[in-house]
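Quiz preparation item.
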């Protein structure tokens, strides 16, 4: 079975992969940095976790139930990295909006030599062992091991001297787990923007060692020095929080609708699970594919994941599910809400990124039709995000005793 075939966009496949990984989770700390065929030493759960077909809380609980905490601490820490990045970006959304805004401008302004370097990098034809294989693996499978992502980003930025923003766009185009927080902020971390003055410079001997010699670039092929990348400071904004009165009002609605989107698909578990839902809408906003910059494969995977989440939500709530494709999500949802005579619609609030842009347009249209859209945020996020203010390790120290 090819690696991409093993990423089946269903919760059942996620649970099966989690179960398989649990048997080796205790060896994760020792093995995780090796980049090996099949990537059996890491969980490969990220595409499902990113769509929340599988929850971070479920992954952590399963690992801790099977192993002692010291045995899986490193793995648990990695799961929380995702939460840390998301909480950090919620408080500095300009890190995403600036990136999104500059990608087309940067693409248009590359000079001839950079264009050649870009074409070679995207096609995996640079002649640098490892880099070329990872470029091809990413496009073919939609997945890359974390260490390969770090080496790839470093070579992109410091050896080819290509803008990090275009590398991040290449990843967002092809990763099945593409996540605006983890991706944008990890690229910024490699480039030295997250921890000013601290870059990640890939070394040839490190690549050869952690690929068991499969990829052995010559030391002279890789840049050994960093370049200083500067930016204007990012403004900090207050975290969005739930409206307690609206949340309390949810149980009073006789006809409540649920909007389902690809940032939180396991609605049968958690804050929304106990609500009485009359109808579920998981319409697919066709324009998001271009706005988010996804390849056809990522778009198809994401849409199939939404379908799976919607099927389960329909079954859980005993509600009819609408799955239409639409070029105008706000108009379609208002129509659906009216047809179902809904008094209100509830949804998990998407995080900073393309789905939030859809969500805000939707909220405005429903509000204009006199139908409130009530946002929820999982307790996991609400409790942890406020701690993502400085670096990861202060975050980890504060939150590791939670739950
Ligand atoms: C340049 C770059 C870009 C990245 N882009 C993304 C992205 O778009 N989406 C994404 O989910 N991750 C991204 N990561 C983080 C990390 O590489 C992936 O989460 C991880 O490789 C996924 O594989 P896995 O599920 O086998 O991870 P495991 O090692 O098995 O980890 C378990 C889970 O923890 C989380 N996790 C692990 N490491 C990290 C990390 N460093 N940052 C955030 N979460 C982590 C993921 O949810 C993962 O599924 C990026 C890292 C780099 C260096």
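Solution:
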């Amino acid at each position: 079975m090819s690696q991409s075939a093993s990423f089946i966009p269903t919760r059942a496949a996620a649970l099966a992969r989690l179960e398989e990984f649990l048997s080796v989770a205790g060896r994760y700390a020792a093995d995780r940095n090796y980049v090996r065929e099949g990537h059996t030493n890491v969980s490969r759960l990220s595409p499902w976790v990113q769509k929340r077909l599988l929850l971070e809380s479920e992954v952590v609980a399963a690992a801790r139930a099977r192993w002692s905490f010291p045995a899986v601490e490193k793995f648990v820490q990695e799961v929380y990295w995702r939460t840390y990045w998301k909480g950090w970006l919620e408080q500095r959304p300009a890190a995403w909006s600036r990136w999104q805004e500059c990608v087309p401008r940067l693409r248009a302004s590359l000079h001839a030599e950079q264009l050649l370097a870009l074409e070679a990098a995207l096609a995996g034809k640079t002649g640098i062992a490892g880099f070329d294989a990872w470029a091809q693996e990413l496009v073919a499978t939609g997945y890359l091991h974390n260490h390969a992502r770090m080496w790839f980003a470093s070579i992109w930025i410091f050896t080819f001297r290509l803008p990090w923003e275009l590398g991040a766009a290449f990843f967002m185009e092809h990763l099945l787990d593409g996540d605006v927080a983890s991706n944008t902020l990890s690229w910024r971390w490699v480039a030295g923007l997250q921890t000013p003055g601290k870059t990640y410079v890939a070394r040839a001997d490190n690549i050869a060692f952690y690929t068991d010699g499969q990829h052995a670039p010559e030391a002279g092929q890789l840049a050994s020095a960093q370049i200083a990348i500067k930016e204007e400071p990012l403004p900090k904004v207050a975290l969005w929080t739930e409206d307690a009165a609206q949340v309390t009002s949810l149980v009073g609605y006789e006809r409540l609708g649920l909007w389902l989107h690809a940032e939180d698909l396991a609605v049968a578990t958690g804050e929304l699970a106990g609500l009485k839902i009359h109808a579920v809408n998981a319409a697919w906003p066709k324009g998001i594919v271009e706005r988010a910059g996804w390849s056809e494969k990522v778009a198809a995977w994401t849409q199939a994941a939404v379908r799976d989440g919607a099927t389960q939500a329909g079954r859980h709530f005993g509600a009819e599910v609408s799955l239409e494709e639409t070029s105008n999500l706000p108009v379609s949802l208002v129509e659906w809400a009216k047809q179902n005579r809904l008094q209100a619609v509830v949804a998990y609030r998407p995080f900073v990124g393309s789905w939030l842009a859809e969500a805000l347009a939707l909220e405005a249209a429903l509000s204009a039709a006199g139908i409130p859209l009530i946002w929820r945020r999982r307790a996991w996020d609400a409790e942890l995000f406020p701690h993502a203010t400085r670096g990861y390790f202060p975050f980890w120290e504060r939150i590791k005793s939670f739950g």
